[in-house]
Design goal:
With 284 residues, the chain is of the alpha/beta class. The protein has one domain: LigB-like (Protocatechuate 4,5-dioxygenase, Chain B), CATH 3.40.830.10. It contains 10 helices and 10 strands. Helix 6 packs parallel to helix 10. The two termini are 17 Å apart.
Amino acid sequence: MAHLSASVYTSHVPAIGAALDLGKSAEPYWQPLFKGYEYSKQWLKDNTPDVIFLVYNDHATAFSLDIIPTFAIGCAAEFQPADEGWGPRPVPMVKGHPELASHIAHSVIQQDFDLTIVNKMDVDHGLTVPLSLMCGQPASWPCPVIPFAVNVVQYPVPSGKRCFQLGQAIQRAIKSFDEPLNVQIWGTGGMSHQLQGPRAGLINKEFDARFMDLLIHQPEQAAAISHIDYVRDAGSEGIELVMWLIARGAMADVNGGPPVELMHRFYHVPASNTAVGHAILKNS
């Protein structure tokens, strides 16, 4: 059977991708941020999975306001980097894993979660920036990736509790796949930031630290944070953190298994106008 070995959490700021693509990662502004991922890049090389299940949000590239799926799973064999207005990022094509993706879709829908199945879509910085942070600039990504898009752009958006429960359903789906695959689940987005209005540029270090503490040690409490708390304390885009809860809900300790192990934790302010958070949790 397949097993889920670890979860990775990281922000997906578009300017991070631009810094890498334009060769600016060694500049004084960016160097401290990329230094925080040096351990993670080596860890991923030492613990390369067979498949990454990557939770992210689309930024009006694959989905417009015409169609807004709450949860969408990519079941295609490949996904091209999206043109977000200045051309696609110069990163490798993302290879999917249709067999596992289709199995997860079937299993999760049978567990009463309604997923949108997507057989063709481009993937934007929400997915490619985390891959770049963890993998650098390879000729090809180290393994297939299953994109899982969550609507955190247009209200109504799913609650943290719903996302956490969805992660538990995804864990059960992965465990029931009849191939010995090593799977990682990544939750991306956040941390505190707001991109518009009178509070544009808001960053709340205290909220971010508390959220990461709860995510690691008391995930059920993190899942109970309300939408209004995210907006008030973490800015309008802080709601992206519910996607971390999908990854956390898939870990063994909240599904009757042993405690998880914290491999790495990192926080940096700012990256563009966003607080960057990052953590790696490993199943025992």
